[in-house]
Design a protein that fits this description.
16% strand, globular, Rossmann fold, five-stranded parallel sheet, two-stranded parallel sheet, Helicase, Ruva Protein, domain 3, 349 residues, ATP hydrolysis activity, alpha/beta
C-alpha cells in the first residue's frame, strides 16, 4: 500500500511540485487499474468519483438497477485503506439509525449515565444505498455530516473521521414509494453522476467475467493519511483568474434572472446554480489537473466536470419538458455559448 505524496522530512531533500504531481498521477492510474479488475468500463464515473475523493466532495450516483453502482463504491473502499460502511435506506429508517443514539447505562455502584453509541455514519466512506427510499426527516440526518463533518446528538457534537465521504445511490426510474431529495441536500453533493449502460463489448466482458464463479482480489493503494496529503496537494494547484471568471460566468448563465443568462435559460429554467457550484467547478478542475500531472487548471477541466456539477442544481420548468430539454441539454448549450477566455490573455495573466 502506498502512502505518498507526503511532505518531505528534514532528513530528505525537498521534492519539487512536478515530482509530486507525477507521483500522484501514477497513484491514480494504479487506482484505476485496480478498479478495472472488478469494474468493466465506466471510466467517466470512476474519474468523477476519484475527483470527489481528492477534493473532499460527496457524490450522488444515479442509474437503473444492475449497473454495479454499489459494487463500484465497495471496490473503491477496498483499494483504499479506510473504513467503509453501507446503509440500506428504507421507509422505516430513523435518524438515530444513522447518527447513533444515547444509551442509559448503570455501573457496579448503581450510578446511571448516558453513553453515546456511534452510528454507521462514523466511517471514512459511507455508502447511502437508495437514499431516496427514506423520508426527508431521515435524509436530513446526513446534512450536518456532509457539510460540517460532524454529528450533533443532544447537547454534544461529535467529529467524524477524516477523511469522510458520502456516496449515495438512487434509482431514477422507480419513483413509487420514494422521497425526492430536497434541494438543500442535493446541493451538498459535489457531483450528480449518471451511470449509463455499458457498450456492447463491455457487456460481453461483464457476462464473461461474472459467470465464471471467480472473484478478483484488489490491492490497497492509498491510506487515509495519503488521501489527506493529496487533498492538500490538489488545493495548492494554481488557477488563472480568467479560468475563475469563466467558471463564474458559466454558473451565472444558469440563473434565469441574471442579465447574462441566454434567452433559452430564461424560458426553460425556474432557478439555477448557486455559488457552491462554482466552488465545485474550481475544486474539481484542480483535481483533474493534478491527476494529469499538470501545474494549473485549464478551461477544458471546467467543461469536463460541468455536467455532473450543474445537473442537480438547475430546475427546468414545464416548457422545457414539453420541448424535450433536460438539464444536460441546457448545460451542453451553455458550454457552447459561454465564451472561453482567449489563450493569449490567459498566458499574459
Amino acid at each position: 500500500m502506498s502512502n505518498p505524496p507526503s511532505p518531505p522530512s528534514s532528513n530528505q531533500p525537498a521534492r519539487n511540485l512536478g515530482d509530486v504531481l507525477r507521483e500522484f498521477a501514477g497513484h491514480q492510474q494504479t487506482m484505476r487499474a485496480e478498479l478495472a479488475k472488478v469494474i468493466v468500463g465506466q471510466s467517466d464515473t470512476i474519474e468523477q468519483l476519484l475527483v470527489a475523493i481528492f477534493t473532499r466532495g460527496h457524490c450522488l450516483l444515479e442509474g437503473v438497477p444492475g449497473l454495479a453502482k454499489t459494487l463500484m463504491v465497495s471496490t473503491l473502499a477496498d483499494i483504499l485503506d479506510v473504513s467503509f460502511k453501507r446503509i440500506q435506506f428504507t421507509p422505516d429508517l430513523m435518524p438515530s439509525d444513522i447518527t447513533g443514539t444515547q444509551v442509559l447505562e448503570e455501573d457496579d455502584a448503581g450510578k446511571r449515565s448516558f453513553r453515546f453509541v456511534e452510528g454507521p455514519i462514523f466511517t471514512n466512506i459511507l455508502l447511502a444505498d437508495e437514499i431516496n427510499r427514506t423520508p426527508p426527516k431521515t435524509q436530513a440526518a446526513l446534512l450536518e455530516a456532509m457539510q460540517e463533518r460532524q454529528v450533533t446528538v443532544g447537547p454534544q457534537t461529535y467529529p467524524l473521521p477524516a477523511p469522510f465521504f458520502t456516496i449515495a445511490t438512487q434509482n431514477p426510474i422507480e419513483q413509487e414509494g420514494t422521497y425526492p431529495l430536497p434541494e438543500a441536500q442535493l446541493d451538498r453533493f459535489m457531483f450528480n453522476i449518471k451511470v449509463g449502460y455499458p457498450s456492447a463489448s463491455e457487456e460481453e466482458q461483464i457476462l464473461t467475467a461474472t459467470t465464471r464463479g471467480e472473484s478478483q482480489n484488489v490491492n490497497k493503494v492509498l491510506s487515509s493519511r495519503a488521501i489527506l496529503n493529496i487533498q492538500k496537494l490538489v488545493s495548492s494547484i494554481a488557477v488563472n483568474p480568467l479560468v475563475i471568471r469563466y467558471a463564474s460566468q458559466l454558473v451565472r448563465a444558469t440563473r434565469p434572472k441574471d442579465e447574462t443568462a441566454p434567452q433559452y435559460v430564461r424560458e426553460l429554467v425556474d432557478w439555477g446554480a448557486g455559488p457552491r457550484a462554482g466552488q465545485n467547478l474550481i475544486n474539481g478542475a484542480k483535481a483533474l489537473a493534478a491527476m494529469n500531472g499538470r501545474f494549473s487548471v485549464d478551461t477544458k477541466d471546467i467543461q469536463r466536470i460541468a455536467a455532473p456539477v450543474l445537473r442537480h442544481r438547475i430546475a427546468t420548468n414545464f416548457q422545457a419538458q414539453a420541448e424535450g430539454m433536460d438539464t444536460d441539454a441546457i448545460i451542453e448549450r451553455l458550454l457552447q455559448d459561454v465564451a472561453e477566455p482567449e489563450p493569449e490573455k490567459m498566458a499574459k495573466s
